[in-house]
Amino acid sequence: MKIAILPNMTRADAPQTSLRVCAKLDELGAVYLISEQYRAYFSQTSAQFLADGAVLEACDLLLTVGGDGSIIHAAKQAASRGKPVLGINAGCLAFMAGLESNELQLLERLIQGGYAIDRRLMLRAAVLRGEELLSEGYCVNDAVVSLAAERRIVELDVTLDGQFLNRYKGDGLIAATPTGSTAYSLSAGGPVVDPQLESILLTPICAHSLFSRSLLFKSEARLCVSSPAGKELLLSRDGETPDAVSSGCRVVIEKADRTADFIRIKSDHFIHVLDHKLAQWQDRF
């Protein structure tokens, strides 16, 4: 087994946590790969150093050290190659982390094969003008459509499988996976969805209506979002730099042709993890 270690070196605790991960893997006799750009920092470890792309191609699984953003980014890289990912928390809360930094002894289970794979639904979010594909990308958490100009109420038309669904007025719309139901959608008032379910959750952002609530659709649903007034919109995938959606274009959101495969070493139920993480967050204030 070859393990790729992807540390987010911008996180304050990530460099030291990554060194502790290396020390544990050395103790277990594991083979692990790290990007050549980090050679100086990890020179005293037994890491094999390769170019970024080569690391991802040569490994059997990815181990990322950071917060939720780092884990999501790694999961998308892993999904495009059909490989699983394990997140180790070196951030604040990291809902998606499989291990905390004080649980590195459990890496022994990883080496011994004592883990399960949780396959999570992903979304494909594309911008089209007619039938012309202008851009596309994949989401582990959510795709968000909002107004490109100054903050004001935007009207958005949504169709479901080619049939008109609703005209929403507000700050925008979130199309979330069950995994992403505990992220932006939850903050916007959406429900928590068991990540083992395959579904697409549509949640309005600050809807200017008494009756706009989240809607849950089957995973095979195809949602199209457009501006009836021809306003320029923005499409953001997992909080990354947004794509422009010009007048006359539409956003198409549907189930992706790949899954995000997360390594699960512990047996905690997701609702207990969520409760624990949210309690941690509340204790900070």
What is the second-level CATH architecture of the largest domain?
Answer: Sandwich
Class by alpha and beta content: alpha+beta
* Share of helical residues: 10-25%
CATH class placement of the largest domain? Mainly Beta
Give the CA-CA distance, first to last residue: 43 Å
The major pleated sheet works out as:
6 strands, antiparallel
C-alpha-based Rg, rounded: 20 Å
Number of domains: 2
Unreliable stretches covering 5 or more consecutive residues: none
Element pattern in H and E: EHEEHEHEHEEEEEEHEEEEEEH
> Strand-residue fraction?
35-45%
CATH topology of the largest domain: Tumour Suppressor Smad4
Q: What do we call the CATH homologous superfamily of the largest domain?
A: Probable inorganic polyphosphate/atp-NAD kinase, domain 2
Structure, explained:
This protein is α+β, with helices and mostly antiparallel strands and 285 residues long. It folds into two domains: 2-115 and 265-283, Probable inorganic polyphosphate/atp-NAD kinase, domain 1 (Rossmann fold, 3-Layer(aba) Sandwich), CATH 3.40.50; 122-258, Sandwich (Tumour Suppressor Smad4), CATH 2.60.200.30. Helix content is 20%, strand content 39%. The chain has six helices and 17 strands. The protein is elongated and about 60 Å long. The model has no long low-confidence stretch (mean pLDDT 93).
